[in-house]
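User: Please fill in residues for this 303-position structure.
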């Protein structure tokens, strides 16, 4: 047995046994109290406390040193003399390391490939069924006419609006419900506008993704996005949300009237109204933005 193991065994000799070896008397009423020449000592588990001397400690070695006025080595010798310690024993056998065969990585890969193949097959079946439903849907042609709405976004846009025209009375209800419209809060003289958090997240993501895809397919959408980014210093996502806000008004009107979107018709409308983007897109109009006293206003005479 190693010396450190012997010390651990000696420290854990029960303290009442040490008390009895020194001739201490246990109190008749308080079983934790012992009367010794050093004064009354209380024992709690492996801790002791001499209340007369305000000294305490832990373990049998400390108690033997305190009761017998011994140093550490002498207290160890005293405990070895009064308490039997098992003789040295042979060390326990070393643990045998269990050697496992290396994992068959090819088997793992084949299993994962089989899972992926099954998933791809099922996904393809879902895609085919969705395409069939879109082709037969009464609003399939309407939403397919939107620039940037492909095989993935058309079904999502159909679901976003649904078929019940009476559900929404105006485009603003769609903008708010989907989370595209910002929230304005006011308190006293303070007012601030922030991102809308309480909304169907996937629905908001649908409009956001469509607006982002429309930038590369719609002339006016690209012009509006670049205006927000370059002239208004908006972040990419803030500009896309603002574009989605406009798109919802356009799509809502098409949806209410059950008419497909017509890019050329909308560009003519911009020209007729003298929109900023009519000039940007090279449409025939004399209206343009003009800076007056540090502000911008739409003017027919931009000479």
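Assistant: Residues filled in for all 303 positions:
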């Amino acid at each position: 047995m190693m010396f450190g193991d012997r010390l651990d065994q000696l420290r854990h000799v029960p303290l009442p046994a040490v008390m009895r070896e020194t001739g201490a008397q246990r109190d008749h009423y308080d079983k934790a109290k012992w009367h010794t020449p050093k004064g009354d000592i209380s024992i709690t588990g492996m801790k002791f406390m001499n209340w007369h001397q305000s000294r305490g400690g832990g373990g049998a070695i400390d108690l033997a040193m305190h009761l017998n006025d011994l140093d550490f080595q002498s207290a160890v010798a005293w405990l070895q003399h009064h308490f039997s310690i098992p003789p040295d024993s042979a060390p326990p056998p070393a643990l045998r390391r269990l050697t496992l065969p290396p994992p068959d990585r090819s088997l793992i890969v084949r299993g994962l490939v089989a899972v992926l193949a099954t998933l791809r097959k099922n996904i393809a079946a879902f895609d085919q069924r969705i395409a069939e439903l879109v082709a037969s849907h009464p609003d399939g042609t309407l939403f397919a006419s939107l620039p940037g709405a492909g095989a993935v976004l058309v079904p999502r846009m159909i679901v976003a609006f649904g078929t019940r025209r009476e559900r929404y009375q105006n485009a603003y209800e769609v903008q708010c419900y989907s989370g595209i419209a910002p929230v304005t809060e006011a308190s006293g003289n303070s007012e601030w506008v922030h991102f809308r958090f309480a909304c169907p997240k996937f629905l908001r993501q649908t409009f956001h993704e469509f607006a982002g895809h429309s930038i590369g397919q719609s002339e006016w959408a690209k012009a509006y996005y670049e205006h927000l980014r370059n002239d208004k210093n908006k972040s990419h996502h803030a500009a896309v949300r603002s574009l989605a806000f406009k798109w919802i008004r356009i799509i809502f009107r098409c949806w209410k009237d059950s008419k497909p979107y017509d890019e050329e018709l909308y560009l003519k409308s911009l020209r007729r109204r003298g929109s900023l983007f009519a000039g940007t897109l090279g449409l025939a109009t004399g209206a343009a933005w003009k800076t007056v006293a540090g502000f911008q206003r739409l003017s027919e005479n931009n000479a």
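For context: Strands lie at 25-26, 33-36, 39-44, 47-50, 55-58, 183-187, 190-194, 288-292, 295-299.
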